[in-house]
Write a structure and sequence with these properties.
410 residues, five-stranded antiparallel beta sheet, globular, 12% helix, six-stranded mixed beta sheet, Glutaredoxin, mainly beta, Neuraminidase
């Protein structure tokens, strides 16, 4: 069998920036280590989904596995080094990251999709290339096999990175990477999803603190405000009649309810596991797994969800405690039309005028509108609606250009 040597990370005409380590790394210096390359970009939901997988593998095979994330930007703003460093802190990436300017490494490794993994054996040869999320078990099995094989051969070396890995410390601030805010003038309340602190913060509209909800440690725990736990909460919806705040608990793949009268937190929907089933479906709210719910909009008893991970819009009937796919086939793209054919790409934000939903469709850099008729119809109202068409241009409808829009208000 012909073996292919992994292309060098440092044999380029120009040096690439490295983060989370104090000097550039080379595959030659890493001989004797199993190396896993992760091609990613921080705006991609699928790339975010695999970060816990990388953390799991990094801990399980500490000393024998070196993980290097290769950040290859899609959008212009993802090229900024400070933005990448902040993303590293926001998502808890602790291994070295090389910034693949001009997509040089992407091309050398013939990568075609986010995320893509390249597994390299201790002798510097490519073992496999895998695209897409949900690869933890496959990678785990392959790494275990390599570990056993090269232990027998005596070709494993001592850890190389212990002395040089250096993550930038996360500054202690009142808020950490807040994902969403929601204002309610009637109660003089600003609801803040303090995403990086895994909690909710309530202030007056002028910024005076009213309450914090959650321990500040990532987890899933219902109960009183002091002991409840969330994981990277994002969008919210306020129910004035019930005096309840609904929260898209994105990191837990859950929908949570905060009762402001009883000061209690409960789980409304989801199982706590990420759904791998993207085709339209539904069922009892607590029996159906969710996939990174990112924003919420409430209309009567219908709670609409921007399900970023499955590229869909979902709806929950709060009286019946059921939920189902409302719009989107699960394919990633920008397709207008009925629920049977419509497609979205990582919807991150939602708003309503009471007659239709407006969606910030981030990966197509477009604003979509969905009618609330008996047969809802999706249509693109702003932006060019293509996965790789983006920019910063004012205009009307398709003439305007946006870039990875993630929030919207009406």
């Amino acid at each position: 069998m012909v073996r292919v040597r992994a292309p060098a990370l440092d044999a380029l005409d120009h040096a690439l920036p490295w983060l989370n380590c104090d000097r550039p790394l080379s595959l030659k210096a890493l001989r004797g280590q199993i190396v896993l390359l992760d091609f990613w970009t921080y705006g991609c939901i699928n790339c975010l989904h695999v970060i816990p997988d990388l953390q799991y593998l990094e801990q399980k095979y500490a000393g024998h596995l070196t993980i290097i994330s290769i950040h290859t930007a899609k959008f212009d703003h993802e090229q900024n080094l400070e933005s990448i460093q902040q993303a590293i802190l926001r998502y808890g990436v602790t291994h070295p990251v090389v910034v693949d300017r001009d997509r040089t490494l992407w091309d050398q490794y013939a990568v075609r999709a986010y995320p893509t993994f390249v597994l390299i054996d201790p002798q510097g040869y490519i073992v496999t290339t895998l695209a897409g999320e949900g690869r933890r078990q496959t990678l785990d099995d392959l790494i275990q096999r390599l570990l056993e094989e090269h232990t027998g051969k005596g070709t494993l070396s001592e850890p190389f990175l212990q002395a040089i890995t250096q993550s930038q410390a996360l500054l202690i601030t009142p808020l950490a990477f807040p994902g969403k805010v929601l204002a309610d003038a009637a109660s003089d309340t600003l609801f803040i999803a303090d995403t990086g602190h895994h909690r909710l913060v309530l202030t007056t509209l002028d910024g005076t603190l009213k309450a914090t909800i959650g321990t500040g440690t990532a987890g899933w725990q219902d109960g009183n405000w002091e002991t409840a736990q969330f994981s990277a909460p994002q969008g919210m919806a306020w129910d004035t009649a019930a005096q309840s705040l609904y929260v898209a608990d994105s990191g837990n793949h859950l929908l949570r309810r905060l009762d402001l009268l009883q000061k209690k937190v409960s789980t409304l929907a989801g199982t706590g596991s990420q759904s791998r089933f993207i085709f339209p479906h539904g069922g009892k709210a607590l029996d159906v797994a969710l996939n990174s719910p990112w924003d919420l909009t409430l209309l009567g008893n219908q709670l609409y969800m921007a399900m970023a991970g499955s590229h869909q819009i979902w709806v929950m009937d709060l009286k019946q405690h059921t939920l189902q796919t409302f719009m989107g086939t699960g394919a990633e793209g920008c397709v207008d039309g009925s629920p049977a054919i419509a497609a979205f790409a990582q919807p991150y934000g939602m708003a309503t005028d009471g007659k239709q939903l407006f969606v910030a469709d981030s990966e197509t850099s477009a604003i979509r509108a969905i009618t609330l008729d008996a047969i809802p119809i999706a249509q693109t109202v702003c932006g060019q609606g293509q996965l790789f068409a983006f920019g910063d241009r004012d205009g009307v409808g398709f003439d305007a250009q946006l870039q990875h829009c993630s929030g919207i208000a009406f």
